Amino acid sequence: MAKSMMVLGTCSNAGKSLITAGICRILKREGYRVAPFKAQNMALNSYITKDGLEMGRAQVMQAEACGLEPDARMNPVLLKPTSDQGSQVILNGKVYGNMKATEFYENKPVFREAIRKTYESLAADYDVLIMEGAGSPAEINLRDNDLVNMGMAQMADAPVLLVGDIDRGGVFASLAGTMLLFTEEERARVKGVIINKFRGDLDILKPGLTMLEDIIHVPVAGVVPYMHLDIDDEDSLSEKFTARDTEALIDIAVIRLPRISNFTDFNPLEYIDGVGVRYISLPSDFGDPDCVMLPGTKNTMADLLWMRQSGMEAQIMKYASQGKPVFGICGGYQMLGQSLSDPLGVEHGGSMSGMGLLPHSTDFGQEKTTRETEGVLADVSGIFQDLSGQSFKGYEIHMGSQEALGNIINEGNVYGTYIHGVFDRENVADALVRALFKKRGLDPSDVKAFDIDEYKQQQYDRLADGLESSLDMDLIHGILGLEER
Q: What is the mean pLDDT of the chain?
């Protein structure tokens, strides 16, 4: 059975996902068989494994840091919000059902038992599991039914590292306050605290570290500097949504839908020199991009209604009528069709007309398509005709069915596909960008191939190097009961 350790944060976005990934990478480089685990995740960015199971992308990123194929056991419960009060519940990679928050709360004993079995199954296959918590572990109103923070640490009998974010301010108060709200048993599990995202002179901070240790009676395991890394983000806290590349030669506009999902589909385009990807949610920000991308969404009909009411749909229709390229992925592809119907209320209920730019119609049923897919792209015409015959590898994850699954279709300058990760292969991303260069009158030979897999591995090593130089790894090895190899 694997040794385990839990990484908790004093708040959301404290950096626990990357701290978990970095510790995983360090242990992997030391020769341990290490894997990540997060009992319950809430995110719209998900991934489909080789066996067709769904999991959160944060654990996919952490699996990559471990040099592993993503395994749905690493994230047994995934909540995908469909409204302010409800989510689609994914249990062990498969749809369990749509639930309101109160329903989910009432069914927590079922999920707790499933989590326990999944954890034990994963722990039997590895030397070490590095577990990640969610949000704040000090939500005292939720303590009795906690599945992912101290409740999971207790289930696994795991020691805890507590991470605080100094960049947002109040880090000493957040660490001390969190410790104060723990029970005596929970406080005993915390074996070290980490101050994350530090900018400045460490010597000025050191007196505060000593005082903190005197207050909470737990050692500071390290002060991690603010590291500029390019590693997949998990959710809408992503800085990508506000980033702008004013020097880009090619401008790709991604519509920032209210329930946007799998926006990591567009990361490979950002990495190509000369390409800027910006996310827009206001018609006034539309501008005159070289290409418009409609991303995936957890509620296609509700987000299409938002586009219709906000004026974004009218902007896209005008843009497409000028012969400029529009590309929809998954939910974005569904929006581009003739109609959408949801008679069973799977996502939104009822029926509505689509944008009418592609010939298909979508009918939502109970079955969810989740599968990995690869092959050769079918023939398409227009500006992106060079996509024809390109090899690809990606995955599908959607409610609703129609023809042309697992490929791209187009009508003139409008394109659509169900394939998430369609641009991950450098040949596909390059073909699309070269076409945009050519349309702009630029030399397409200036587009340089980019190996995204090699780049990711470099980023994970940078993360591990940064943590090794700033954390007390002897302390962390001791907490885990490991000897450095």
A: 92
* Distance between CA atoms of residues 158 and 480, nearest Å: 9
Q: How confident is the model over 11-22, as a mean pLDDT?
A: 95
* Interacting residues of 308 by C-beta distance below 8 A, sequence separation 6+: none
Burial 329-339, CB ≥16 within 10 A → b, else e: bbbbbbbbbee
219-243: pLDDT as tens digits: 999 999 999 998 875 544 455 666 6
User: What six digits make up the tokens of 360?
Assistant: 């298909």
The structure's pTM equals 0.83
Report whether 5 contacts 159 (CB < 8 A). Answer: yes
- Provide CB contacts within 8 A for 145, sequence distance 6+: 105, 108, 151
Q: Active-site residue numbers?
A: 330, 420
Q: End-to-end CA distance of the chain: give it in Å, rounded.
A: 19
CA distance 208 to 484: 30
b/e per residue, 77-107, with b = 16+ CB within 10 A?
bbbbbbeeebbbbbbbbebbebbeeeebeee
Least Cα distance to 195 among 173, 165, 170 occurs for 165
CB distance 39 to 77 below 8 Å? yes
User: H-type helices in 15-56, by residue range?
Assistant: 16-29
- Half-sphere exposure of residue 7: CA atoms within 13 angstroms, side-chain side: 28
Q: Which residues are bridge partners to 195 per DSSP?
A: 164, 223
Joined tokens for residue 57: 């992308």
Helix residue spans in 30-107 (DSSP H): 57-65, 101-106
Burial class (CB in 10 A: 0-12, 13-18, 19+), 130: buried
Q: Which residues contact 378 (CB under 8 A, 6 or more apart)?
A: 388, 407, 408, 409
- Give 56-97 pLDDT, tens digit per residue: 999 999 999 999 999 999 999 999 887 777 889 999 999 998
In 154-271, beta strands by DSSP E: 160-165, 190-198, 220-225, 250-255, 260-261
Beta-ladder partners of 128? 3, 34
How far is C-alpha 82 from the geometric centre of its chain's CA atoms? 16
Write out pLDDT tens, residues 119-159: 999 999 999 999 999 999 999 888 888 999 999 999 999 99
Instruction: Of 36, 41, 39, 45, give the one whose Cα is nearest residue 66.
Output: 36
Where is pLDDT greater, at 246 or 458?
A: 458
Q: Which helix (H) or strand (E) holds 98?
A: strand 94-100
